[in-house]
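Hi R.,

As promised on Friday, here is the backbone we talked about, encoded as structure tokens. Could you run it through your design pipeline when you get a chance and send me back a sequence?
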């Protein structure tokens, strides 16, 4: 177990683990890249937004998923639509902004 924790610490935040699906999303607003790494059990995901990483709960819909990350001072909500591979992101709290763009699966 100690070796596993050590190896995970060596991986950069932008690397998908073997049991994760990666989505890379590019903002149409400012060109930034948002990364989403969804666990194979589909209940959690890692989001990297503006170089800040956070764990998110996942809610599944008919044609997409919603990722919700709650921090003490803000909430991130990202909706990924699978038919069009588009997303909307909103954050509220200490920093508030709206964003949208397109995603690709697997980087």
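Update: got your reply. Pasting your designed sequence below so it's all in one thread:
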């Amino acid at each position: 177990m100690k070796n596993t924790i050590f190896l995970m610490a060596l991986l950069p935040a932008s690397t998908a683990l073997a049991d994760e699906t990666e989505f890379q999303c590019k903002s149409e607003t400012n060109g930034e890249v948002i990364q989403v790494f969804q666990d194979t059990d589909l209940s959690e995901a890692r989001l990297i937004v503006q170089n800040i990483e956070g764990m998110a709960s996942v809610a599944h819909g008919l044609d997409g998923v919603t990722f919700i990350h709650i921090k003490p001072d803000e909430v991130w909500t990202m909706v990924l639509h699978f038919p069009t591979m588009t997303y909307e992101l909103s954050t509220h709290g200490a920093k508030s902004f709206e964003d949208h763009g397109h995603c690709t699966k697997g980087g």
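One thing I noticed while checking it: The chain is about 10% helix and 60% strand.

Thanks again,
M.
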